[in-house]
Amino acid sequence: MSAQPPRLPAVFISHGSPMLTLEPQRPAHQFLRSASALWPRPQAILAISAHWETEQPAVGATAQPETIHDFYGFPPALYRMHYDAPGAPHLAARIRSLLEDAGFRSALDPQRGLDHGAWSPLTLIYPDADIPVLQLSIQPHRDPAHHLALGRALAPLRDEGVLIMATGSMTHNLRMLDRSDSGPPADWAVAFADWMAQKLEQRDDAALLDYRQQAPFAARNHPTDEHLLPLYVALGAATPGAPAKRMHASFALGALAMDSYSFS
What we know:
Elements: E1 10-14, H1 27-34, E2 44-53, E3 58-60, H2 76-79, H3 89-101, E4 107-109, H4 116-125, E5 133-138, H5 144-154, E6 162-168, H6 187-202, H7 205-209, H8 211-214, H9 218-221, H10 229-237, E7 245-248, E8 251-252, E9 256-257, E10 260-263
Parallel strand pairs: 1-6, 2-5, 2-6, 3-4
Antiparallel strand pairs: 1-10, 7-10, 8-9
Helix pairs in contact: 1-4, 5-10
């Protein structure tokens, strides 16, 4: 009889710019390089990326996901990068079953690869690309409560050797970035990230679900929701009431909070 795999956390990773993979001077790059030591080695990884948007939840079910370079205007070295981890079609079917049991209409996508929200942090966390990876889409027209419910449906995977890795950005207003990257973090971005940290550590889920109304400078930090919605999937997969752990906090380009969290 095979041993029961150790319980894995759900994590939220602020993936930042795709350039993070090529910027070892950044604290977030250094954090991700060492992050795999913070939890047991998973048997598979389910990435919930801000960069895959669908009407209904969809699960990537290809046996060999392609590396999607879903960005433009970056150095050629970034387009040469590939993350050739295997897929997990059998796990995709399991995930769809969990979602259907929880009342979600969902679909399997036999062609979906890995977008940069998934492969850019994984290049740093698991550079050998030897752990099966697949993605779950978000629904940007739905609210945080919808994504919290998705996470609750997925929670059993944590006891099945699956790392639930939500990937987005703690703040995400690209029009307000300091492209010179020369000044201190913007006060309004710091205030938002600190409010989120307090509510996550307190597990004030009601306030978090109502962040648009309660968090300072919410609309300025997130003109649209999509880069924060993956956080709620990780939150939903967490043990009810257990405080989140802020694994990392730093800023890039003045207003891009690179916070990452672990949920037990």
